[in-house]
Amino acid sequence: MHGADSGPTRGYRHRRRECGRQGAREGKPASDVREPSRAAVWVALETLWRYYYRQFPNTSTTMPVTAEVRLAKAHARIAEIHRTLASLHYLSSGTLLKRTKLCGNPRCRCASDPAARHGPYYEWSYLKARKLRHRTLTAAQAERMQLAIANYRKAKKLLKAWEVQSLRLIELNAP
Predict the structure, then answer these.
(1) What's the pLDDT tens digit per position in 55-76?
(2) pLDDT tens digits for 78-136?
(3) Does the structure show a pLDDT above 80 at 31?
(4) Using the 8-state DSSP alphabet, how is residue 108 labeled?
(5) How many other C-beta atoms lie within 10 A of the C-beta of residue 142?
(6) Number of Cβ within a 10 Å radius of residue 13
(7) Is 110 within 8 Å of 97 (Cβ atoms)?
(8) What pLDDT does residue 172 have?
(9) d(CA 88, CA 79)
(10) Residues pairing with 121 in the sheet
């Protein structure tokens, strides 16, 4: 059993009353430290609450969005995806490489100087029937192919977004 004068075994509340936070820092005895009023505590909590919500500006404290609004937003996003996909003209999967090559002739300048290699040659690599194929392209073809590959990657992202929006529509229309 703990007595009234048992020293270090006293509880947290007793230690708090004994030294107090401000009194311990300023070297004042516990009797000089005043407890904050309830109004001051509420003002401090309200300030903290406002600061917290300023850090997260996208968090809404208003009522949740209705199902009709969600449906309209999903339809609008899908329409935007349709417009973007319609604007893409060239599509192609694969990879485009810019290569320089050695000719194999020991007397050629490319054998001794890496900066003097032959090329550049543009090589398009793609899969066809699960086999990797390579094709050499001209510089003009390579420019169009680079655009087509970028469009293909963009189209894949847009299709994934379309799938997400379609799933949202299905979930919102479900009974």
Answers:
(1) 666 655 565 678 888 888 889 9
(2) 999 999 999 999 999 999 999 999 998 999 999 888 889 998 999 999 999 999 999 99
(3) no
(4) S
(5) 19
(6) 8
(7) no
(8) 84
(9) 15
(10) 99
Q: Which amino acid, 128?
A: K
Helices (H), the chain: 12-19, 21-26, 38-55, 67-86, 109-112, 139-173
pLDDT at position 47 is: 81
Select from 95, 148, 88 the least CA-distant residue to 122.
95
Domain extents in the chain: 18-62, 85-173
Rounded to an integer, what distance in angstroms lies between the CA atom of residue 167 and that of residue 95?
A: 31
Task: Measure the CA–CA gap between 74 and 70, rounded to whole angstroms.
Answer: 6
* Whole-number Cα distances in Å, 134 to 22, 41, 96, 128, 152: 76, 72, 10, 10, 18
E-strand ranges in the chain read: 95-101, 118-128, 131-137
Distance (Å, rounded) from C-alpha 13 to C-alpha 22?
Answer: 15
pTM: 0.57
